[in-house]
Amino acid sequence: MAADLAGRYVLPVTFSPLRFASLLRTQVVGRCLTHVQTTPSTQGVARTMALAGAPTGSLVLADAQTAGVGRGHGRTWSSPSTGNVYMTLILRPTTLQEAIKVNLGSALAVAKAARAFGVDAGVKWPNDVWVGDQKMAGVLADSQVADDDRANSFLLLGIGINVNGDMSTGALGRSATSMRACLQGADIEREAFLAGVCNELESIMGMPHKSVVDEYRRLDVLTGRECVVMPHKLEDASSHYQAYCIGVNDDGNMQVRVGDHPDTVVLSCEEVSVRPYLDALQRSAPTASCT
Prior knowledge:
By secondary structure, the protein is an alpha+beta fold. Helices cover 27% and strands 25% of the residues.
């Protein structure tokens, strides 16, 4: 274990590509690795590589990002050098159905890999990973489709995972957690965990769509909960509405019920939040537990 005098996690000198490769069970995912210490965003590096013809499964990994991007509404992703995983995977799906399956399966792969380490992780639609009511990871999917030009068509999966970071301080302390925090301070080997994510994702990519949806439902943390649906910008409160999460349908879209209306509303790209319902609880409980 590497730690400073205050007992905080200290990033190892370097990530070991050889150790990572030795733990891969994949044919393509993660087999072409680009590792950098610091970059504005792995999405930018991956986009440049994809446009230059990088093969499907290519992985960009950074120890830290200076301009990490979050999902939607201009959000950022805090990316300090604290032993977390900041990555973008380049994929080249051949059909829309395959792209939808991969997008849904990306958070599922992270959750399953975390569970293999003893973290009780679940998926929050569409592609976040939660432990209890705290966020542990998020996925940002960005695609480019060029008609009749597969070389310039690709899907970028940007994934930020709180692995060894100290989430007890700062603005995210109540809403975010890390694997290390959930395991009472035990350090997580990034090489082993990242290999686990890649292994799980390639396995999911080979599954039928229905099986992926069934697996997603098994780890879904939203079903049966009240939520707030935000179709537009976060600050545009007039467009928000309260709903009840019924669960994902066979296409992988979240279904909600609004008020006493018998019909369901199918969500595709809206943001879903349960935070307003947690605020009152968090005022009386300064931290959320990890089990």
